[in-house]
Protein 1
Amino acid sequence: MTVVQLIFREIIKRKLNFTLSLLAVVITVSIFVSFFTTGQASKNETIRLMRDIGFNLRIIPEKTDMAEFWKTGFSEHTMPESHVYKLASFKGLSYAHLTAVLQRRIIWKDMDVILAGISPEVPSAGREKTPMFFSIKPGNVYIGFEVARRTGLKKGEETDILGSLFSIEKVLPESGSEDDIRIYAHLHDVQAIVGEENRINEIKALHCLCIMKGSIADSITMLREQLLRVLPDAKVLLIRAIATAREQQRYMSEKYFAFIIPFLVVVCMAWIGILALINVRERRREIGIMRAVGYGSGRVAALFLWKAVLIGLIAAAAGYGIGTGLALEFGPAIFRVTANMITPEIKIFYWCLIAAPVFCALSVFIPAMIAVTQDPAVALREK
Amino acid sequence: MIRLEKVSKIYRTRRGDVRALDKVSLDIKEGEFLAVRGPSGSGKTTLLFSIGGMLRPTEGNVIVSNRNLYAISKRQRAKFRATNIGFIFQMFHLVPYLNTVENVLLAARVGTKSFGPEDAKSLLNRLKLSDRMYHRPSELSAGERQRTAMARAMLKRPGIILADEPSGNLDPENAAEIFKHLVEYNQDGGTVILVSHREVVDNYASNVIYLKDGHIQEYE
Ligand SMILES: Nc1ncnc2c1ncn2[C@@H]1O[C@H](COP(=O)(O)OP(=O)(O)OP(=O)(O)O)[C@@H](O)[C@H]1O
Ligand SMILES: [Mg+2]
């Protein structure tokens, strides 16, 4: 009888012990594989979300009184318009939308309104984006809903603002915010009528992405420092987007993963170790007789270790199948954005094929040693 | 061929030491059929296991075929057992998940010479087990089980057969059958040591010793 023949005959005889061991390893491998497969997807999803949403920057003059800023919505100080071009050419930041703004509060037609001059979007290298900011032709204005209601002005009419004539290109729908008392014009028109040539009081950069390695939090701190070197008289306000939250969520799930998997592996190893111990107890006489007919320690240990390796191999294959199946079945519902990124990870299959047998063999090492060291004379005396 | 030199075995238990063998000296010649008799607890099994290289004596030497059995390594002892010694037990000790042929072949690949199913089958034919070749031990009668165990012990034609109460669980007919095969083995040149309560074994044996409290009482 070869060791392999003995192992297979014994497995068929004691199916329960074998099945329970196999079950434990299959469950562990399945969970690992499904976590890993969806984990890749969640990582990809975060990257995708970061790319699509990123974070928003508001850059304002450094001297700005923040209490005043948050009250009025803009800074009473100004900075050079050229800042926006410096920012545009700054390496280390990619953005989807970038514009320069000059805002002023004026009394116009007995009404307290905000005059907002907006530059056309500064194009970003490479990608075409539908503009997020109004792109207003010089000589034209958009007026807010409340402004139109109070003054009775309509689309297509002409109106005078601080001595210049503008034609009303659009009346904006009600927004329920201070936008309703805004008048939007081209940046250069506003600069001219308020006498602030080449000055702005805010740069808005939307959907920015740091072109740096590391976590978002780290790279944002670095980005801030680097921006301030380029724009020394500016202040950088950061509006965190959901990507950050997503990234944190991913870190959380990675932490769980890092905790759950070793925990599972330990429980699984203990489980099959105990089952192997029971198996050794059950086979005392059998091992005794093998000793009597001349089996050496290596051959006795091999009976248990190779059986464990066999369990590991079967479990790796089955667990990979089940784990991948679970990930494909339930993963898309969890990670909607990257649903189609949940694909079988073949490299994890090879990894399991090696790791599972090794872990199984390690788990039954102590029981195998007990089998080897047991006294056959005592076992064979049992009646 | 087998020589025991002042062999003592003391089992140390929590309730005190048990002296199972007390300075036993014994010479067994090649081709001898030795019967070992004696009351329960007199040390017969202990003696047999010591000769078989399965139980290290507390004192003394066991020399088999010019080899001091407990001076060589455990691995060498296992190898020695595989080629030179066949065990037969009262409880048969068959491997429950192997059929008759497989049980006989349990040690076929251990040791120097390799034996195959054909050897097992011809032996089983001689032991009148030809229509029980593929049965499991649980499907065999006590006599059939013991003959299977006997085939296992004899497969590689070891120089020595050690039989510990082989008839203990058998009726007189099956017991006689077993003894007959042991005598045949002995007549073919094998050395047989048989432990038994049955007085009839004296008729088969060329020598009989009586053990009592770990001592040999008479030596014929
Ligand atoms: N492992 C052990 N630990 C302690 N004492 C033991 C052990 N094995 C045997 N003994 C004791 O050693 C003595 C001899 O035992 P042994 O089995 O050799 O007797 P035996 O002549 O074969 O008896 P039986 O005819 O009942 O089989 C007995 O008193 C027994 O209780
Ligand atoms: Mg006994």
Protein 2
Amino acid sequence: MNTHFVKRLQKEIGKGNVLDSPASLLIYSYDSGVDKALPGAVVLPQTASQVAAVVGLARREGIPFVARGAGTNLCGCTIPVPGGLVIHLSRMDRVLKVDAHRRRAVVEPGVVNLRLQKVLVPYGLTYAPDPASQKACTLGGNAGTNAGGPHCLKHGITTHHVTGCEVVLPDGTFLRTSIDDPGYDLTGLFVGAEGTLGIITQIEVGLLPLPEDVRTFLVSYPSIEAAVQSVTDIISSGIVPTALELMDRVTVEAVEEFVHAGYPRGVEAVLLIEVDGPKERIRRESEKLRELCQKNGGGDIREAQNEREREKLWEGRRGSYPAMARLAPNVLVEDGVVPRTRLPEAVKRIRAIAAREGIRMGLIAHAGDGNLHPNMIFDERNPEETRLVRAAGYEMMKVCVELGGSISGEHGIGIDKREAMRWLFTPQTLTVFRKIKTAFDPDNLCNPDKLIPVAEQPGRGLDHGSLAVPVAAPSQSSGTLEAPEARGAPSQSSGTLEAPEARNELPDSGVLPIQNVEHLQRVLRGARAAGRAVFLKGLGTKGFPIPSGALILALDGLKSVVDYDKENFTLSVQCGWTLPELGALIGPHSQFLHIDGGGTLGGILSARASLKPRLRDQVIGMKCVLSDGQLVEFGAKVMKNVAGYDAAKLFLGAWGSLGVITEVTLRLFPFPPEEPFVKNPRPETSRGEDPRRAIYQKIKNIFDPAGIMNPTIKWEEPTVAR
Amino acid sequence: MPVEPIRFPDIQTHPAVLTKSIDKAHYEDTLHCNRCGFCTSSCPTYIATGDEGLSPRGRNQAFRAVLEGRLKDPAEAERFFSTCLMCGICTSVCFSEVPTAELMSAARGTVMGKQGEPWFLKISLRFFLPRPGLLEPMLKILFIGKRIGLSGVLNRIGFLRLISSQLSAADEMVDSVPVRFLRDRVRPYPPAARDADVIHFLACGPNYLKPEVGEATARILKRAGVRFGYVKNVCCGLPGTTYGDLPAARALAQKNIELLEDHPNAVILLDDSSCAASVKDYPALFRDQELPSGDDWRRRAEAVSRRTRDLSEWLVEKGIQFPHLTETTSVTYHDPCKARYAQKIVHPPRALLSSLPAVSFRELPEAEQCCGAGGTYCFAQPEISRAVLDRKAGNVISTKTDGVLTSSVSCLLQLQFGLRRLGSAMRALHLSEFLSPPDKNR
Ligand SMILES: Cc1cc2nc3c(=O)[nH]c(=O)nc-3n(C[C@H](O)[C@H](O)[C@H](O)COP(=O)(O)OP(=O)(O)OC[C@H]3O[C@@H](n4cnc5c(N)ncnc54)[C@H](O)[C@@H]3O)c2cc1C
Ligand code: SF4
Ligand code: SF4
């Protein structure tokens, strides 16, 4: 790295906060994953304004930078572009506020997860996401990877608990977001973005009260299938445990060898089950649990009798990765997710791959949500073995995708899995991801090369024998991103793409009933060619002034059930359904939606009709048609999925301004909603000077560059008096 | 079928510069660090600085790079190695049990072989420590200077700082110094008989810096009615191990082993946890296969190690009672890392204190953390040491007890210094002093 830049960094944030000795650079060339690359300098800012100053400087100099928390991610998320800048946030580690009344806390990104938990104990509160690495990993890193944890089955993963953040954008300016804001859900976009859209300098998180009672069980099974059947039965019975952790025989042996947690040896699988809640309910559920476990051949049921025993059982679970790590210099932890009922099949095929390649592997799974981790051991000094293990990992991810799952349930994509994104997402969706990245970071300096597949993979691994800093021109990677589309006003949109015959189909005014998705695609292409504004019935008609000549689409004809997976508690439907209709469909199976509102499902989602329970926590997949007629897909039929940007959230509360939601996959519950619905006052607008507006406009341009979708909502001024 | 561990490939084939078997053993240990990072946020120096290089993972990776010849100038990594407190917290949370502290001691040897330790340590290690007859007068001159306020004057004109910032840090820390060392004070007590039950090993801390601690221990032994006595032991060798001068440490250990072998059945009791851990760990000094008669020495070291007890451990083992402690007080307890991690002593002091009817014991928040003393670390790395200490002292104060107890003189001085720094009137005492306060009527 040029000394001039290092000097300026030193001047900007103080000599003591800048490292550039060869030894320091070597120490920042790795994280917990497999890849390595040498940075050119490391900074340890102490304040948000120092972060902004550093980012501003890096941008002016064209130096790529990456935010680093504890560096415990497993997919190379924090590996710098060779010669780039590492921004290590460990010195920003203050808990700024605990508001016990509102159950929120505000922290700096460098706060260690477990430390926050300890700070919260006197308040009788807890922060739900508890990655097994919680002793070390930071809240900033957790937000970056959208981390989950063994206890996420009931309470959800990081994105469900981050309620707002302060971000230094790649241009060095500040942005504050909150999920309570009107407008696009930027908070949801930053969580899980792996530091590619900006650096989070403050995080507001929601807190939960400590449960009245907790019970923990360890059950052994003669087969993985029997264990998974138990899991399915437990969930179908209406019990939502906080944790349902599966460990295979190899893992249990490795753990017992070392942790001596008292796990039974010689059994094919064990389940670690935990339930929490009010005493009386937990007593009932515990009885039921025992019964369901026994029914499926679960034996040797052990219940922790006190906190120490409970801790011991968990120590065994948390020790599963490290226990494997003891057996070899390196472990590759894969992180696939499948619909829960497909777990046995996934396990079988993954094991076959490992056996074929002669790879030693232990398996664990957050079985409740189908998230599984094959832990493969190897020695990175043996390049052939390393290649073999990585190839096997890829093949295992492919299996998960084939079974309707995803390539990452919680660890993220980083550089390790970005190529696998191609299996999961269509080229159209990947293009949307690239446009999101470009909208925030046009120079492609903010943790480039992560998350999204690059056209041509540039050589990135660190040669172990050399310490020479490869000079990486940042353009090396920026060239691989697609050129941003023209972000013009509606009038500028060219007619080349559009089918003229579609234009002729369009009525001059009034409501146009949409027959199917292809029809919708045609209509939107036509509207775009004609430069006509498009509103969605049930939305546009309510709050927004509709210009003459606008087209109003009625979507209540889109009514197929794409997939209703009762065992897995997911429902994929088109958006023309009404809630009573859906209720009639799932009610007989004692399954429930925690959604409220009138009109079509699409309307309810687009208008974010209820604020509580939060819609954003219940939509796990989405298909949308954009104004150019392209169909894009986000998410999957699985409860946990951190692959790619969480773009689906942007459509919730977008009032039809980004595109048309045609299909959603919703999470179902075995019980009716427990909290009363809180309605969203509408329509939503932001008032006064709002720096978010420029960002909103950028997001609008990504999805609807022609600006025809609900153009009256500009998040600029209140359009309707409340 | 359990998974067979992957056999670590033969190191000979690796382009490393390893020739000695002991280096190979250390290299094997660094390989077990798989960079999971689990340990980082438990490490006091990482907590204090946020620098990955000052974390256990960073240190292990740096040492590995040095051994593999990947770091052109190994001295570059010296800062990582020399700032390790050797507290051992990392190993206790590491599932691969990478012995980072031990590795850092070796790393210091490898790197500083060329570099040299701070000058005053070098002199004391090689010259004074094996010769109490010389060490004591030298320390006395320094201490008397302190007593008559000379060092304060010298410090103010920056004289000490000029010679060595470390010495001036030492001067700031130790607020009062003894004029009579323990060896003089316990002279009324007999040299150990051949068949003594207990040898009270005179550790340097209780001997030179806090003789009142050793006196208190002697009172406990006397009251308990055990047959105990003293040998002319030299320094246990800990500073040598800490600063990577293993030959110096070995020479001291051999001298002590020979002395202790004269009393083959006695328990070797130490009232300083750091030195207790050091004596218990004598066998590791002779781990190097290439040492002359290494095997023989290792066996002898093992025999001594087995007989060695840290104070709290011995008190609980023997069920010693303290009926004279009738005054109501509340205390908290700071575990010296050398007790908690090196010897895995966590329960005994708590059991002991909780069993005293007049004493209410309160647990210390972040009890697992080091106080930053690290033997002579507080002199060698004053800045980091103080950052670590301020956090510790804050936690001690938060217990709102009458005082904090501990079982190592190095921690004791550090805690007293820390409480003073934060302007607290809370007391810090050695466990012995608390259990056997000086008789006011005598
Ligand atoms: C033993 C072990 C067990 C694990 N168990 C789990 C588990 O149970 N569940 C799980 O989900 N993960 C687990 N992980 C993976 C890892 O701990 C998580 O991914 C964790 O969230 C990473 O946090 P970190 O602080 O180490 O972040 P880092 O690894 O430093 O960074 C992760 C990503 O976040 C970005 N980032 C960091 N700080 C910021 C910021 N301030 N603003 C924006 N972006 C930022 C980085 O650029 C990077 O892309 C485990 C890892 C290990 C080694
Ligand atoms: S020392 Fe242990 S805990 Fe720390 S990074 Fe290495 S393997 Fe992980
Ligand atoms: S011994 Fe202590 S200071 Fe040294 S690396 Fe381990 S935890 Fe850190």
